[in-house]
Amino acid sequence: MTSPAPSNPAPARPAALNSAGLAKNDYKGLPSTLCPGCGHDSISSRIIDAAYALGLRPHMVLKLSGIGCSSKSPAYFLNGSHGINTVHGRMPSVTTGALLAQRGHTAIAVSGDGDTGSIGIGQFKHAVRRNVPMVYIIENNGVYGLTKGQFSATADQGQTLKYIGTNDLPALDLCAEAILAGAGFVARSFAGDAKQVTELLKAALSYKGIAVLDIISPCVTFNNHDESTKSYGYGKAHEVPIHDITFVPEFDEIRVDYEPGEVLSVRLHDGPTVQLRKLGRDYDPRSRLSALALLEGARHGGELLTGLLYLDETRPTLLDTQHVHDTPLALLPEALTRPSPQSLADVMRQFG
Amino acid sequence: MINDFTIQVATVNGSGSQTANATLVDALFHMGLPVNAKNVFPSNIKGLPTWYSIRVSGEGFTARRDDPEILVAFNAKTLDEDLRALPPGGVMFYPDHLKPAAPRDDVSLYALPANAIMKEQEVDVKFRDRMANLVYVGALAQVLGIEMTAIHDYLTRNFAGKPKVVGANYDIAVAAFEWCAVNLTKTDPYTLRRMDATAGKILIDGNTAAALGAIYGGCTVVSWYPITPATSLAEGLIEWMPKLRQDSETGKATFAIVQAEDELAAIGMLVGAGWAGARAMTSTSGPGLSLMAEFAGYAYFAEVPLVIWNVQRMGPSTGLPTRVSQGDLLSTYYLSHGDTRHVILLPATPAECFEFGWRAFDIADELQTPVFVNSDLDLGMNAWMSEPFTYPEQPMKRGKVLSAEDIVALGGRFGRYQDEDGSGVGPRTLPGNDAMGAAYFTRGTGHTELATYSERPEDWQRNLARLDRKHEHARTVVPEPVVSGEGADTGIIAMGSTHPAIVEGRVMLEREGVDTDSLRVRALPFSPAVRAFIAAHERTVVVEMNQHGQLAILLRTEYPEFATRILSVAHCDGLPLTGAFVAARVKAALPSPTRPEEVNA
């Protein structure tokens, strides 16, 4: 006997609202056009999770990207944010300009390994060098997907692709490149590790300068062979977190639920905290040399080390070194951007 | 010969002649004499020959002339060649330790004891080369009649707060001045006499003028990469921005200037800043412009306002990096791939550099597109007399920017690329607008009127047709050409820094009985007035500084019905145009008088 349908169905449960008074749906984007199962789509979902959890106001977020599969991603999250899909490899300069014009915005920039590691390596390193205050996400799959399967600069040495042949060149490690160029927040993760990606994103979004996240994001169509270090299989088998990472927003009570000595708590600018729980490694992410040594060790050992590799809170950002006005430059009133007629007369006298 | 000749100073690059030459020009200017100076210098730091040409013209002409009457030969390597080029009756000043291989008796030769003066003045050996240049300043003052007080005034202003340096330099000039009074017999006919033709005027280079214009235009983001001859424009911004654009209450900068890692990054930052609502600019030259091509097309298609100053030098390729040309007109107009056409402003004077400096931002915002300003090395890096600049007459025009209230009134939906008034320009919103529906996505790929991605043929065609309408609309927004003349049969069309040569060339033609009208194009796309001018003349001679006659090519393309009456006179050797060249070539382009035997019976 089947029970009759209720004549008065219960009202749908109201969506949970975050600290900005928004529901998770308010952080969604357009439906993805990437291949089903693409790692990039899970990263988009994590961005939605993190932005919702932090209570970001979408109109104060800028979404930026270059060209490639990864760079399509900004269309798939935060519909309420201004977005710009730029040219191949040169998203960093566009982000730099946008933040000079509109300080106060949170910039979420998505790039790929071709976009950042090949055509865009110069702009990537210079954005890091300037400490442009942005979250720089590299969706790293070691292959050009949109042009249907060529090597990028992070492709594995010795790897073979159907039409291109064998890659004879060593892979660039974008985390090492970021650390060398002066980045203050460098992390590596795996698109399949939802919790870690979300926690890293939350910390990155709360960081003051450039936060570089290199996320291994398997390409299900062109680079998901088991021998590829960017495949799901390899990622799952070789993923080694260097710590458990937990992000604690400033408005939450800081819980110390680990034994003293096992947890490293790093306070970010303006109050939020990153808690790192040791996983058998004696690793402090505040040493550049240790971070580079760790990466080098992992490369030799074939490990996919994930977690917060390096953290430095002290570097001034581009906006600090430029002494940029507190009001966004794009919104300054004319009284502040056009000097007086008297001042022009004074200048003219100097040339008379 | 009073107040009408050219002084050419030949020195060694890097020998510090800049102070001496600037002293001469400034002193002449402050004696009320119309003066123009051109620095012809090599692409080198030290050691190669450089020439500085100072023209004094009581009639007020400021174009280059080919044959300087007065030569200051302070470069051993070029002395003999420079002397050979001197016209009969000319003058040569030279240090007495340099001996001309073939002295001429049809010119006045004045040997100056430069080394003896340096020794007598006890100049430190390491400063001797540099300060020996003040010897010719003092000698020219004595022989030609330059006032020593004007020289002292300039040195005092230039070395403000360094009385010792002023004294050391001035003493050398005085020593040379006095030595010439006692030891030289004037055999040349050239004299300078005080006038009052420069009262109220300023002496300034085009790049500084452009930088000031941008500052008064509300420029807030500058990103640039060094390249001759555009660097001094950026340096002008670096010098003047902190003086004029610091918020007096907070001490914070109302601007940001970033030296980019290359030109691709420079324009990328402008794209970001312009998209986010700032008034953003860069300065570059030909090779830099080439690197900017992809982003230029992006900004054109995504409709992002920004301003690019292209201070032209001689190409193709590295070309002549320190010589002048107007060779980038076609490459700028069509910069990038696909069907791209840009707005270009063409200043001819420092006053226009200032005006276009601020106006370019209004035009870019109004049209939501990159605006290029094609200046050149001669205009940008040389000192010109100018009227003081005029303060911008209207408040800034920010174009169609919708506020949060506007979006709410529209029901939370707006058509970013919707053409509501036929101008081809749609409304935009800036990041930070908190109305629901204000955000939109910008991309270089095909899009609909609502800024959503589209590959549909009809969407693509509709978009390009609208961009074409915008280009037509731009004709009515950009500066109108300047027309002069009274209905002659022959019209001359020119642009930019050839202006002084056109002015002088027309006077020369008039003296030979050839009347001309002239039109100076001040922007692309062409205003309807350009067509009207061509239509009103039997023939139009297009005079410009490049090899292929690029302005003529564009005019013939735009007005094919007049193609056969558009004649091209192009000059391309790296040097600024002369009035004599214009006169001779325009005359040669005229039809020869019909011979009697050719008349049909």
TrEMBL record, chain A:
Pfam families: TPP_enzyme_C. Keywords: Oxidoreductase. Residues 67-215 form the Thiamine pyrophosphate enzyme TPP-binding domain. Signal peptide: none annotated. It comes from the Bacteria. One of its GO terms (biological process) is cellular respiration. GO terms for molecular function: oxidoreductase activity, acting on the aldehyde or oxo group of donors, iron-sulfur protein as acceptor; thiamine pyrophosphate binding. The keyword Oxidoreductase applies. PANTHER family: 2-OXOGLUTARATE OXIDOREDUCTASE SUBUNIT KORB-RELATED, BLR6744 PROTEIN. This is 2-oxoglutarate ferredoxin oxidoreductase subunit beta. It comes from Deinococcus koreensis.
